[in-house]
Amino acid sequence: MMLGISVIIFGIIQAAPGGPETMLLQSGRIVDPEVIEAYRVRLGLDQPVPVQYVRWLGAAATGDLGQSFARNRPVKDVIFEHLPASLELMGAAFVLAAIMALLLGVVSAVRQYSWIDHLGTGFSFAGIAMPVFWFGLILQLVFAVRLGWLPVSGRQTVGMNSFTDHAAHLVLPGIVLSLRYVAGWSRYLRSSMLGALRSDFVRTARAKGLSERRVVWVHALRNAMIPVVSVMALDTAGLFSGAIITETVFSWPGIGRLFVVAMTQRDYPVLMGILLLGSLMVILFNLVADLLYGWLDPRIRYE
Amino acid sequence: MSVSTPQVSEAPVLVLEDLRVSFRTDEGDAEAVRGVSLSLGPGESLAIVGESGSGKTVTALSLLDLVPRPVGRTTWEALRLHGEPLPGPGDRGWEGLRGRRIAMVFQDPMTSLNPVMTVGDQIAEVLVRHMDLSRKAALEEARNLLAQVRIPEPARRLADHPHEFSGGQRQRIMIAMALAGAPDVLIADEPTTALDVTVQAQIVGLIRDLQRASGMSILWITHDLGLVAGLADRVAVMYAGRVVEEARATDLFRSPAHPYTALLLRSAPRLDGALERLAAIDGQPPSLLSLPSGCAFADRCPLAEARCREADPELREVGSAHLAACWRSDEVARMGGGR
Ligand SMILES: Nc1ncnc2c1ncn2[C@@H]1O[C@H](COP(=O)(O)OP(=O)(O)OP(=O)(O)O)[C@@H](O)[C@H]1O
Ligand SMILES: [Mg+2]
């Protein structure tokens, strides 16, 4: 599977017009075609496409993703340098989304058609329909610029390295990145919970005299979570691409912003490295989803 | 099988007076239960019999205040356990009673157990809730209960999930759960309908043995008149949300006083025969949305006459401890074709 994905990634990048040399041309410093040709040879771009692919793949398999055109450093180093910031943001967004979706989903189901359920429905539509960059800008405007409660962007204030400063920077991008997942997961959990609450075993749990809290949060929720958890695991890989816009809006020094920068610089090795990493994540979380499913649902056992 | 006389002299364990339940539906209010009264003596077995949709399950659920709200609206005149009034519908205080004083076994053991919890935990949580046991002690006791309901290797099976048991075994587990709170009253809502014939007999035998050992009272709900003959002291026949006849089992079988009962007996399979569902009465029960002003059975009744369509007969005494709601109950015996 990884092999197929690598071909596709490579193909897409090759299909893009212009090459790294265009950047050099645009910079206006180098105009001599011979210099450009020498540059292409050095980067291996004079070779036929299949040769380039095999070379790249062979290297990638050993963990070598090549040199960044723009930065003159190994792609691997560049990516690893930006990875912690991204993982931090994705982690924060995931935890936030999971907690919010859990509360909203369960309460909306238990109090079906109440004001909180309607609020949740409206919120979910907004969360899915609202463009991420627009929502990000609004939050920046309100909470950072107008109210001044939180920093506008970046990962930390220059010269400061406290935990609170760090956390304050994380709040807005975390909320923005989590929004659509809160929206999606809470609706999904709501319908799953509605089904569970109507099921016979929940009636049995009530007939046993268990508290309503235990009936809802243990008996119904454990069953309702099974389909939701696999969706959550699959979506987690998607956080990766969701982070691109969020990181750009908030100048968050992570992989997403690196991707955008590399794109404007036509730094193909970096782009390919990131896409490969993204695909790895998708495959990894597919596996995680399967494992979680089997772990949560005792009726499924992998032999 | 001996059928003991109901202990009328002894104070009843459970008394229900004038239960009414209606459900809000898109087409209007469906009156599922229309004034049902029941009483259950100590150690007594009362069977509720009736066609599908006659309100048996809703009546049973009302005794635990488990009719879903707000779709269902429940009222009753009185509900007493050992003479003490139970909380009203929707009041606080039900949680401590459910599974402790009154327990229920449901129809479908395949869906009535939580599929993602071990059976040990599902039994133990009743004991933790009501019997003040630690989880460890509760699991120990759960093992004893599994042994009581004759699950082989109970200690090992505590950690298994419901799907690892057969249908009959799952119903045994449901019974173990119901027994865990040592209830005064056990409601068994068609506990054998979903099971094979041979397994049915085992489950019925098991519940009867357990009743003999514990002295609890049982409310049996069933379609199956054949089953009723063997295990009930008294029988209440329900039709369209009402009790239309109530009598000692022997009296009911010998001399039914309501045409509906008589037709049920005629259509019921013989004791030696296969256990079929009651079906063979012509016509349909009336819609609960728009009940006639007269007797609800009139349209299907061979004895129906003008007054039956005008006024709904009250349940009245037609013999010793024998009640029937029919204007012409005296003539039922001459309907002919009984068994
Ligand atoms: N939650 C509900 N919402 C709406 N109507 C309901 C609900 N529960 C029961 N009813 C209605 O109440 C009536 C009585 O149902 P009930 O389940 O008590 O019948 P039953 O005698 O137990 O039948 P069966 O033998 O099929 O179990 C039926 O018409 C049913 O449609
Ligand atoms: Mg029923």
Quick tags:
heterodimer; A: 303 residues; mainly alpha; MetI-like fold; 2 domains; B: 339 residues; alpha/beta; Rossmann fold; eight-stranded mixed sheet; five-stranded antiparallel sheet; 28% helix; disordered N terminus; binds adenosine-5'-triphosphate; binds magnesium ion
Overview of the molecule:
The complex is a heterodimer of chains A (303) and B (339). Chain A has twelve helices and no strands. With 303 residues, chain A is mainly alpha-helical. In chain A, α11 runs antiparallel to α12. Chain A is globular. Chain B is an alpha/beta fold and 339 residues long. Helices cover 28% and strands 22% of the residues of chain B. Chain B has helices at residues 56-62, 119-130, 135-148, 154-157, 167-180, 197-214, 225-231, 249-254, 259-267, 306-310, and strands at 14-25, 28-40, 45-50, 72-75, 78-81, 84-85, 102-105, 185-189, 217-222, 234-239, 242-248, 316-319, 322-324. Chain B is globular and about 65 Å long. The chains are: A mainly alpha (303), B alpha/beta (339). Adenosine-5'-triphosphate binds at residues 23, 25, 30, 32, 50, 52-58, 68, 71-72, 223, 288 of chain B. Residues 56-57, 189 of chain B line the site of magnesium ion.
Q: What is the strand and helix layout of this fold?
A:
The complex is a heterodimer of chains A (303) and B (339).
Chain A: H1 2-15, H2 20-27, H3 33-43, H4 49-61, H5 75-110, H6 115-129, H7 132-146, H8 163-197, H9 200-207, H10 212-249, H11 255-264, H12 268-296
Helix pairs in contact in A: 1-12, 5-6, 5-8, 5-10, 5-12, 6-8, 7-8, 8-10, 9-10, 10-11, 10-12, 11-12
Chain B: E1 14-25, E2 28-40, E3 45-50, H1 56-62, E4 72-75, E5 78-81, E6 84-85, E7 102-105, H2 119-130, H3 135-148, H4 154-157, H5 167-180, E8 185-189, H6 197-214, E9 217-222, H7 225-231, E10 234-239, E11 242-248, H8 249-254, H9 259-267, H10 306-310, E12 316-319, E13 322-324
Parallel strand pairs in B: 3-9, 3-10, 7-8, 8-9
Antiparallel strand pairs in B: 1-2, 1-4, 1-5, 5-6, 10-11, 11-13, 12-13
Helix pairs in contact in B: 2-3, 2-5, 3-5, 5-6
The complex binds adenosine-5'-triphosphate and magnesium ion (MG).
